[in-house]
Every structure is written in C-alpha cells, then in structure tokens.
Amino acid sequence: MVKPVIAIVGRPNVGKSTIFNRIVGERISIVEDIPGVTRDRIYSSGEWLNHDFNIIDTGGIDIGDEPFLEQIRQQAEVAIDEADVIIFLTNGREGVTAADEEVAKILYKTKKPIILAVNKIDNPEMRDMIYDFYALGFGEPIPISGSHGLGLGDLLDAAAKHFPKGGEAEYDEDVIKFSLIGRPNVGKSSLVNAILREDRVIVSNIAGTTRDAIDSPYTYEGQEYVIIDTAGIRKKGKVYESTEKYSVLRALRAIERSDVVLVVINAEEGIIEQDKKIAGYAHEAGRAVVIVVNKWDAIEKDEKTMKEFEQKIRDHFLFLDYAPIVFLSAKTKKRIHTLLPVINLASENHSMRVETSVLNDIIMDAVAMNPTPTDKGKRLKIYYATQVAVKPPTFVIFVNEPELLHFSYERFLENRIRDAFGFEGTPIKIYARERK
Ligand code: GDP
Ligand code: GDP
User: Fold this and answer.
1) Which residues line ligand 2 (CB under 6 A)?
2) 66 neighbors 29 (Cβ within 8 angstroms)
3) Is the ipTM of this structure higher than 0.95?
C-alpha cells in the first residue's frame, strides 16, 4: 500500500518543524542514536482518522550556500515533486511577507492541492489575523497553533480530503520489490544495470505507477521483481538532488516501497558513519536487508580479505547481524549471479510464517535452558507466544508483566527463534503483552 505524502512548506520560523513534530509525535529511533546524527528528522509517518500518511518537513532540506530566497524556492520545488498534498504554512503574527509571496509564486505552478495554514493563532481572539492571507490566492486559510496544538485536526481533515483514492497495492503480492541504497558513487546505478543485463532477464515495460517512479520490473527464472527507484539512480539534474537531506528522503521513500533493501557499500572506501545511518533506516523500517559490498574488483585481496571485511561490517552494523553479505563487482560482473538467490532468501524469510505449536516448543525449551529474569523479586512468566504478522515476522509473547521482559532476554529469545527457524535476511519483532 502506498501512503499519501504531505509536505509542509513555508519560509523559516513560521513553525514548520513544530507542526511536523506535533503531527508525527515522539518516536525513538536507532538512527538518531548513532553518534553524529542530529535530531533532524524531516520525513516520518503520521496517522489521522484511519488515514496513514507520510509527511515531509521541507524546511529541513538545506541547499548548501544558496541565498535565502533560493533555499525556500527549492524547498517548495521538493514539495511539488514529492507530495500529494502541500501545506503552505505562514505566520499570522507577522502577516503576509515578501518571502511568503515567493513561496506562493512557486506553488502557483503546480496543480497539486495546496492548503494554506496560518500558524501562531494561539487563541480565538487572534483569528482575525487570518484574513490578510486570502491575498495569497489559495482560498480559505486555516488558523492553527503549533505550540498549543490548536486547529491541527481541521488542517489534517483538509489534507485528507485530497488524498489519492484507491489505495490498492502497486504490484502483486508475489512480486519481490527491492531497492538499492547507499552513498553517492558506491555503484548503485552500475549495479542496477549489471543486474538487468544478466542473461535471460526479461525487462517489462515500466508500470504506470501512481507516482511516476522510475521502477524497473523484470522477470528472472519465473520470479517477478521490481527494482524500486532510488535517490542517486534517478538523476534529474535539479539543484536540491545533491543535498544529503534530499537523498535521505528519497532513500526512505524507496525503502518504504521495498520488501528487500540492498545496502550498498564501496569496498574501496570501507564503512563510514553515513553508511550506518542509511543501513539504520532500512532496519528500522522492518525491511529485509542484504549488505552488498561493491567494487570488490578494485581492492588488493588475499584469502583473508573477505573474512576481515565481513568482520568489519559485523562490528559496525551490530543491529544488522541477520543481514547476509554479498561481495561483488558491478564493473566486472564478478559474483553478480550470487545476488538474486540471496534476495530471494531474504524475501522468503521476510514473509515466513511459523507454526504456533513449534514456536511455543522453542520458547519453552529456551526458558528451560535459561530461566526468565527477575526484577525486584518478581519473575517474568511466559505463557504463550504467537506470530501475529509477516513482513517482518512479528511475535507477541503473553507474559505476566511486560516490563519484566528486558532487552537482553528478548535478544536471547530472538536468537533462539532465529536458530530454530532461520530468519536470515529479515529483522524480527517481538512484543510482550500482559495476560493475567
Ligand atoms: P520553522 O523554521 O518553520 O521550522 O519554525 P519552528 O517550528 O522552528 O518555529 C519557529 C519558532 O516559532 C519557534 O520558536 C517556535 O517555538 C515558535 N512557534 C511555532 N509554532 C508556534 C505557535 O503556534 N505559536 C507561537 N506563539 N509560537 C510558535
Ligand atoms: P551511484 O552514484 O551509487 O549510482 O554510483 P555509480 O553506479 O554511478 O558508480 C560510481 C562510479 O563507480 C562510476 O565511475 C562507476 O564506473 C564506478 N563503479 C561502479 N561499480 C564499480 C565496480 O564494481 N568496480 C569499480 N572498480 N568501479 C565501479
């Protein structure tokens, strides 16, 4: 299912990030725990009256050294390119400014629905301040207050009216959708070309997807695949394309549409912080993950090199211990053929369902081997476990008190489940739920 996308645009200080945070709420993310990553989320999911959507804070896209007006123009362009509905945010306390008019000028060019919101209307007496904003030409302005959380329901109602209808899946359930993510120049486009040129690959016409994404559907040995368009592969030559935030945004959107994410690393350069951050996004999204070390032709090797590189990856990506690693070269095509079987395996495991009785045998054996932890004199009791979802496999364990299931014991159970069922390539989720 493809979620609709809302983008917030507007000049600095009108309250874009305040509104964004209000709408998405607080969420703990591993990516933000990685050192060197600031609290700079600009893309997240939200929910309003049974509508799931994604939202972009375009204010967080920093376009290098461009002058102020050019920055906000570019941000409005991103909104036009990426969103289904645009929220044009202004500041009621300051009235219409020249910068608001600049944003409006860019937005006139699109047919996409635009909702004009006037922020910082912190109490009903201030409502009169919205009338100036009719002059921007986007119809009735909606008064809101980000800091007081007022009017956000009306705002989201207005946005939801414009969400695209339908909501059916883009591709059939049994098509394997995968994307390649990684820093610029790791070889993503070369790899896509190498995969598509493999013998017997039949590339079908590009499907008319809702968002004119540049996906590459193909069939190999009877299995249908779609390579999902990714930042850095689609090269349109727009100014904002080369900014880091925009490439993260594109990567997140590709991840979301994928079953399997290939995290591509450049063997020549080794692993850097940004690789970890990118890999973190794939893990958090609950997608199957394969680590691809590209440019394996370009380095000096002996019989230990691969093992050493693998260890380095394991040390850096602790949270991706389930991800298989493939070493290859897009340039020489060496070992390219090893990739698809691994993608197939990861995809299969991502949607694997296990039998409840077998699962419970495994859990009970685990508990017999390593007794459940105690806390303040209370012992965790596990009654029963069941798999509640696939993609990724998700388990609920019914216990006496969920807080007693500490991270380390959960990790132990996860490892037992993995040993028993072999969920290679996919994250699995475990939730504890109380049962009296
Ligand atoms: P952005 O640059 O558009 O992302 O704006 P921010 O979200 O960073 O907000 C700019 C400033 O306006 C901050 O100091 C916020 O606390 C303040 N602000 C945001 N929303 C409101 C509001 O509804 N009322 C008032 N009075 N201040 C607000
Ligand atoms: P992207 O930005 O991740 O899509 O990377 P590209 O596919 O554009 O590749 C970046 C550069 O790396 C190009 O000059 C490629 O020719 C080169 N390259 C890609 N794959 C390989 C490889 O396997 N080995 C070597 N030696 N160079 C490669």
Assistant:
1) 182, 184-190, 232-233, 294-295, 297-298, 329-331
2) no
3) no
